[in-house]
Amino acid sequence: MRRFISLFLLLVFYLFLAGLSAEAIVRMANAAPPAQASGWFWRAPDPLTGWSHAPNSSGRSFDPHYEYDAWVTINSRGIRGAESLGYAKAAGVYRVLLLGDSFVEALQVNDGETLGEQLRALLEKGLGQPVEVINAGVSGFGTDQQLLWLQEEGIKYAPDLVLLAVYPHNDFMNNAEILESANRGAISKPFFALVDGQLQLRYFPFDPDTVPPVTSPFAEVAVPDVPPGPLSGLAEWLRPRSAFYRFFDPRIRLASPRLATWLARAGLITPGQESHLVAQGEGYVPLTYQVYAQPLTPEWQAAVALTTELLAEIARTTAGMGATIGAVSIPSPETIYPERWQRILTHYPAMQSGVWDLHQPEALAASALDQAGIPTLLLADIFHQNASAGPLLYLEEDGHWTAAGHSLAAQATVHFLDTSGLIPALAGHTLTPAVKIPPRSLWEWIVLVLVLLLAGSLLWNLVKIGPVRWTRQVGAGLSTTAELFGYVARRRQFVLLPLLVILLAFAGLLILAQASVVGPFIYTLI
């Protein structure tokens, strides 16, 4: 019994030591999101568009994986940008109205790194006059909401150019009531219907108390309410105090939804997307990826036809404002990074037997924009050319642009506005789009120097004592290590393995210290 208690206490000690080490590493690497919640920048319901930006909201924006940490400012008119961007346009100012969804809203980057702000800086340089870009992007907005906002609010800004950023991956779904109501689990905005070739608006002005329940055949299985688990108190205590807990939480949900569901039932994490995924069953294919299916179902074909007419109405509205119109088509991250598509297929096994065309949405959007008479820049080619040239253009988990992605899109857009003649005054200011490789940070230089010093010192030691003697020393060390592990295996003292690994790690550091000019630093660490 005493032996059992001793082993149990030793195991507890190892777990505590491992947890303490993990906590220290996560904190040193700044790999976990802050304990407080990310900022909230929206209000609902909104009678015009269903939801919109909350005026005068600002704060930090970050995701659970802590891929980004940005500062976001929304002015009093619900626009991401400075308060000085009012309706009135000063003399001599060229004004661009930028419509779009979350890619234009750009909560993943700081205020000065968005497509709109980088576009403004480049246009000012090319035009030699003041330029204002009105960033009207809002997360989740479809073409229908952009049309409604343009007719009610956008016209007040008297833009010279209306630039429409389309995201074919989900724009068709966002515009169709039968698809979007299933996607969101409720009717949460006004919808247009295409009746005898004419647009008819429903649920306007929007009032959530008057809309019917969702009857779409695409509606997903509702997740049953999960009562608080027995360990929910422990989770509440850990969440604000442990960086490792906040680091671990989103990753276990992604890596093993079933294990995460069990942890949610136990109360160790709050129920989330993993519970929704498990509830859908083995044959689940997310609605958002069905836009890639070959062939498209009639519902998706109707969504394409509706979107085509919405784009034509935006073009007519812009012409009535006396402004020029252009569009930018944004590729999805899985079309730029094939490994992301493979991860999606692995995450949703039922998709592996399907027939998919990742370029189908962009081709359909390009055709719809052409029918509407809107000159369009397809970003896919320029993003493909630069995908491996430098920093990532899309965040790995979030899926939106990084600052480098916004920069490349802004450069490509200015080049397009010049070569297409949409801004004649840009003629002769051709810009060649390219990813800007950022300089190495101080920590990257320190690590690089240390690695080079260690490699050089070990090479010098090899030359100094000779390759034969060096090989014998390495062999002797490996032989001793094998004997230690053999002893643990024969005696079945497996609880000693963590201690043995730690001792061997320190031994390796000592060996490096003896043969390296960075030895004093390693001795200090030990």
Structural account:
By secondary structure, the chain is an alpha/beta fold. The protein folds into 3 domains: 2-33 and 227-280, no CATH class; 54-221 and 300-426, Rossmann fold (3-Layer(aba) Sandwich), CATH 3.40.50.1110; 442-525, no CATH class. The protein contains 20 helices and 11 strands. The chain has helices at 2-29, 102-105, 115-127, 143-152, 168-175, 177-184, 232-238, 243-255, 257-266, 273-280, 298-320, 333-336, 338-347, 360-371, 380-386, 403-419, 442-465, 467-491, 497-514, 519-525, and strands spanning 42-46, 50-53, 58-62, 69-73, 94-99, 131-135, 161-166, 191-195, 198-202, 324-329, 376-378. The strands form 4 sheets. A 5-stranded parallel beta sheet has the order 6-5-7-10-11, with helices on both faces. Strands 1-2 form a two-stranded antiparallel ribbon. Helix 5 (168-175) crosses helix 11 and helix 9 (257-266) crosses helix 10. The protein is globular and about 85 Å long. The chain starts with a helix and ends with a helix. The model has no long low-confidence stretch (mean pLDDT 88).
List the defining traits of the structure above.
five-stranded parallel beta sheet; globular; 3 domains; 49% helix; alpha/beta; two-stranded antiparallel sheet; Rossmann fold; 526 residues
